[in-house]
Amino acid sequence: MNERPLVAWDVDKTLIDAGPGGGDIMDVAVSRTLDRVLEHGVRFGGKTDPRIAAEILAASDVPLPHDEHVATVLTHLEDVLRERAHLLAAQGRVLPGVRETLKRLHDLGAVQTVLTGNIRPNALVKISAFGLDEFLDLEVGAFGSDHASRPQLLPLVLERAALKYRRTWTPQQTWVVGDTEFDHECAAASGARCLLVATGSVDYDTLGTLGADAVRHDLSDADAVVSLLTGR
């Protein structure tokens, strides 16, 4: 039995779809940093904001070093989302089954937080815009602003949760839930369990080849998801 798991949720395309208001904020932030529009083919899904910014700069032949540019991009990224925060709830949506799943896990005593590539301020804006913060302990979460490498984020969640709750979670009691191969990579690096959902840019069949503990089309069957995550 694993009735009180630690569940670390990805945000974009796992819990929410930020809609048009959140869709191009990275490109706008990069453009503000360099005062020009860059053409690139960088895929965003599952990556941290610092990694995305660095990949865009590299793909656009911006001269090294990139560290200072990346820091400026992240500052603009926070500004752009704050300017558009009012659009999130109006144009975005909570994905199927998410609210019910979060509520039921919360009621069962699961510790839930986020493990996201978003920088912390932007993750908080997105989560609060849809009223999901009441189910999540964001103090123990990990964010793109903590580290550019996603596999480095789960150890931070485990450490922060252990300090706050004065207990530890074994790999079998720890779940990472996301929508890309990077979420699975993150879980595997720490030996945690992984649930992948095909609500992002990676299709169900492809997710099924990655070796996650479970793959679902979405979270609409809250009964099944809660049973899976709690070991009931």
What do the pLDDT scores average to?
95
Percent range of helical residues: 40-55%
Helix count equals 10
- How is the quaternary structure best described? single chain
CATH architecture of the largest domain: 3-Layer(aba) Sandwich
Bulk shape? globular
Given as residue ranges, the uncertain stretches (5+ residues, pLDDT < 50) are none
Kindly give the count of domains: 2
Q: Give the CA-CA distance, first to last residue.
A: 6 Å
Top CATH class of the largest domain? Alpha Beta
How is the main sheet built? 5 strands, parallel
- Cα radius of gyration in angstroms: 17 Å
**Spatial arrangement of strands, main beta sheet:** 4-1-5-6-7
Class derived from helix and strand content = alpha/beta
Which percent range describes the beta-strand content? 5-15%
Q: What is the number of strand segments?
A: 7
In N-to-C order, the SSE pattern is EEHHHHEHEHHEHEHEH
Would you mind describing this structure in some detail?
The structure is a single chain. With 232 residues, the protein is α/β, with parallel strands linked by helices. The chain folds into 2 domains: 152 residues, Rossmann fold (3-Layer(aba) Sandwich), CATH 3.40.50.1000; 69 residues. It is 46% helix and 11% strand. It contains 10 helices and 7 strands. The strands form 2 sheets. The protein has a 5-stranded parallel sheet, sandwiched between helices. A two-stranded antiparallel ribbon has the order 2-3. The radius of gyration is 17 Å and the shape is globular. It starts with 5 loop residues before the first strand and ends with a helix. The relative contact order is 0.19. The model has no long low-confidence stretch (mean pLDDT 95).
